[in-house]
Amino acid sequence: MMLLIPFAYAVKYEARLEDGTVISKFDGVEFTVSDGYFCPALSKAVKTMKKGEKVLLTVKPQYGFGENGRAHSGNEGAVPPNASVLIELELVSWKTVSEVTKDKKVMKKILKEGEYINVLMMGLLSKFGGLMVPVKLIGRLQDGTIFLKKGHDEDEPFEFKTDEEQVIDGLDRAVLTMKKGEVALVTIAPEYAYSSTESTQDLAVVPPNSTVNYEVELVSFEKDKESWDMNNAEKIEAAGKKKEEGNASFNVGKYAKASMKYEKAAKFIEYDSSFSEEEKKQSKVLKATCNLNNAACKLKLKDYKEAVKLCSKVCMFILASDICGSLHVMVYVWMHA
């Protein structure tokens, strides 16, 4: 679940002492209420303001710099102890900032609002998940170096499928929270980006342990075809493809991801009452294969109880079949698992 946190506010302000001495002035600065800026009064005031509004704040010491005041620092003037401060403040704009992950290591700031339902909700409405999302991307390092640019300068939008590990985890998670037409700035910590490895991208190298920023525009999205919109052959084909995706994840040690793939594959052919005899045979083999492979995943994940359940499903399938057919199926399953 995406957690909303205080807005990012862009302001202009000039602060001075009661004798007219200017102690701070900025023609454009951005901050969040949770982080604060300059003095506590600024964060409290912007929450009551409208875009474009200008106000004059009289700030008492308890909402300014208190009984200790503040020493001179760089271009910022000193504030005497127990001094009141006058602040001319203009709210230029504000943007929604959200925590994509609970540990705040993937943060999203909306630069342009989108429309209608977001990708995550579309994914929830899709029984099997996975949405094709065309996006425009600009990836930057913290120093501003552009390492990736896709979908701009008349190029076709970059397309990827969510929840398929086709992009870094943080970007995948962030796009799931976006709406059609939305433009957002996503800041991704190394744990959800390229981790401790160096990554060579189109325009530059991302050094190990880098926090990266992506400017993302979600052009549109399209959900996968639902099983009830498929004919029998399409269901069997979709199940087979999902099983192969599970095999690929299993082979590189991503057992939780593989388990999810096998579960999705089995769901495509969960109901086979309308299948022909040949289609039923194919679907039973596929279901048995997926359950056995999923059981192997559960063993790797030390989820022994679930592994037993999955194996039991296969045993029940065998018992429900004729003996010769069962032996044939078991040999076939183990050969193709």
Automatic annotation (TrEMBL):
Query: PROSITE patterns, per this entry?
Result: FKBP_PPIASE
As its record notes, the protein acts as a catalyst of: [protein]-peptidylproline (omega=180) = [protein]-peptidylproline (omega=0)
User: Where in this chain does the record put each PPIase FKBP-type domain?
Assistant: 11-95, 130-222
SUPFAM superfamilies named in the record? FKBP-like, TPR-like
Q: Which UniProt keywords apply?
A: Isomerase, Repeat, Rotamase, TPR repeat
Root EC class = isomerase
Q: Does the keyword Iron apply?
A: no
EC numbers on record: 5.2.1.8
Q: Where are the transmembrane segments?
A: none
Keyword Isomerase attributed: yes
Q: Which Gene Ontology molecular function entries are recorded, alphabetically?
A: peptidyl-prolyl cis-trans isomerase activity
Q: Which PANTHER family match?
A: PEPTIDYLPROLYL ISOMERASE
| Protein name per Swiss-Prot or TrEMBL | peptidylprolyl isomerase
Q: Which organism is it from?
A: Cinnamomum micranthum f. kanehirae
Q: The organism's lineage?
A: Eukaryota, Viridiplantae, Streptophyta, Embryophyta, Tracheophyta
